[in-house]
Specification:
It is built from 12 helices and no strands. With 272 residues, the protein is an all-alpha fold. Helix 2 runs antiparallel to helix 3 and helix 7 packs parallel to helix 12.
Amino acid sequence: MAKLLRRYKTFIIAGMQELITYRVNFFLYRIGDIMGAFVTFYLWKAVFDSSDQPLIQGFNLFDMTLYIVMSFVTNLLTKSDSSFMIGEEVKDGSIIMRLLRPVHFVASYLFTEIGFRWLVFISVGLPFLIIITTLKLLLGQSFLQVCLTTLAYFLSLILAFLINFFFNICFGFSAFVFKNLWGSNLLKNSLVAFVSGSLIPLTFFPKIIAEFLSVLPFSSLIYTPVMIVIGKYNVCQMIQALLLQLFWLVVMVTLSQLIWKRVQSHITIQGG
């Protein structure tokens, strides 16, 4: 493990440096995300205010507020730009430099993203998580229960990040065939946001659709970690959700390897 970290340390540092170098861009995007979260909150507030029931699909307004906040945080921590990076490097031809390096092609992207996400976790994720856990303790939840859900959330978060990373790697490999992924990346991100529970909790969908979406890998990206951290899953449900995430991670890793073997013959270097 130590040898692996030494080998890919430069990629982790590169990911951190990218965030530090373009920090204004990072903060502007986060302002946009916060504005979106506020809009979502007030939309749901209007829904609950117009309803004569305090609970809608097992959620009250406080639960929904927690869901919106943690969905925003979880999205930041599990987001992957690997498909965008591959698409841009294929388009401008710089992909050849990565292919010539004596490192694993996919691992070079993975450790770059780890560096980036680590700084995001320290600057955004950790403060929000401290606030949420403190709030739970003040509301009377036991220390053991809070610790259990927090640890389960961390594990679920790691699995969600890896699933999303390898899914985007699989998608990014199509750049070797189609050469430009800009438009398809936008479409992919919009669809994933909808079916992952980032915009609407899956439990609000019709039962058949909700059950179908809950077994797809996309529910593991946002919906599963958030439902764990806000306390909507019991221990049995948490274990089942984590096992499902582990299953999809194995599937995505295997799929990425199979696709990589097939697309290597389509590599052409553009740009200069």
